[in-house]
Amino acid sequence: MKALILPISLLLAVFASQPLSAFVSPPSLLSHRLLQKHRGAPFLRQTTLSSSAVSAPPGVKQQEGVVEAASDHEDLQREESRKAGHYGYTYDDMKDMGPLEMAVPANGWRIGVWNFQREWLAIRRAIRYGDMAPESGWANAPGGDGPFAGLLNVLRQWDKNIEDVLATSFNVPRLTPSKVQHPTDEETIRLRQELSRLSLDDDGVIRREEERVEKMKFLLEKYKDMDTSKYPADTGLEIDLQTIQTYFNAPLLIKVPYLFLCWLLDRLYAGRPIQRFWTLETVARIPYMSYISMLHLYETLGWWRVGVEVRRVHFAEEWNEMHHLFIMESLGGDQAWFDRFLARHAAIVYYWVVIFLFLISPTWAYNFSELVEWHATDTYAEFVEQNKDRLKRLPAPAVALEYYNGGDLYLFDEFQSSRPAESRRPNIDNLYDVFVTIRDDELEHVKTMSACQRLESAMKSPNAAAAAAGLAPWAEPDKEEEPAGAK
Fold this sequence. Notes:
Layout: H1 2-16, H2 27-38, H3 72-81, H4 108-128, H5 149-169, H6 186-196, H7 202-222, H8 241-247, H9 252-268, H10 273-284, H11 286-300, H12 309-330, H13 337-360, H14 362-386, H15 388-392, H16 398-405, H17 410-414, H18 431-452, H19 462-468
């Protein structure tokens, strides 16, 4: 036994000599920097747009030179009440930021070693104090007789024994609980308690999806004999009939993995909605990376370059999903080591699955994403309905304010291929507004994925269309503002 403990002790001493104090994922660093920008001060957003920079949505008339907005007094009251919420999931107590402080990524070896250190520490904390500790109930039934309780108890005891050897022989500091997981700030504790009360009824999501599918079937039957050019614009579902049609084009090869994915999410994340959303967003952004990779390959080989603008749209879609991911991380969705391990490895596998699927049939690849985005839309819709009052009492995280109410919304417009650029501007006052906006984002992804499956025309960039129509801010030369008081 001693012969086994000694080499293990020496190995662990290398990685424990400069222990990290906490673990959270890299995007939380962004949340921390944004928080420093917005903490203690109202988040001010640009509200003045020239009339030439705004394109009205279909069916809405705009008077020339006038942009409808709330009164200055109402805007001021809203801005004064809008502050970024700090939920405490930052790098504040980390001693070594490692390669995360570098503007250019370090080499693979350095990043790998540094990441091994922090993940090893995260695993130990998960077993000793965190999501795999006896009191968590994650892998242990009440009373400590769960299916993995025996194995975890053995690992826990081994870790303590090795820690005793390292502390005694090599003066290595002992493991301590993460400060991020055990905050002392009263406001942070209050916000986290409110977050822990958020719920999601999986059966409610299933019922909502079933009701939506029945409505879609009814509409298809109602208009089955009508020419597609005469389809009504308003179906009551905020989508057109062509989008409804593509939903039912999924073959069993696509439908079965999709249903399995939904079942798995329900089982693994029952009672943990924020963690479920974080995992969903980690996976949901992957197909857009796969599409771009395949389109680059086809273009490089000279196989296809008819609709190169679709790469711009896919990048904007991934950018949108990335910010959804940042938002969930700012709410603590990635704190459990097992969730990170599962989601990130699943994302790598998913990337290559979509690559292979795109190689077989791009339409199938887009259709699978459409199904996943529909599931996300239904899930967020059920979540905001169940938690409306509680979400309205919680502040929006800084990253949500920066993304949705910041000055640079070019990419936000770019992924919404079904509407004119600048026709959608969410107003974020609280966490309810954040989740409603994310729900609506997912529906826009549904529309874009549906449009990618239609063969009659290539995908167009919304911003390029706005520029061609002279509606984009960059379509006209800048004009000097008239001095105040001049006539």
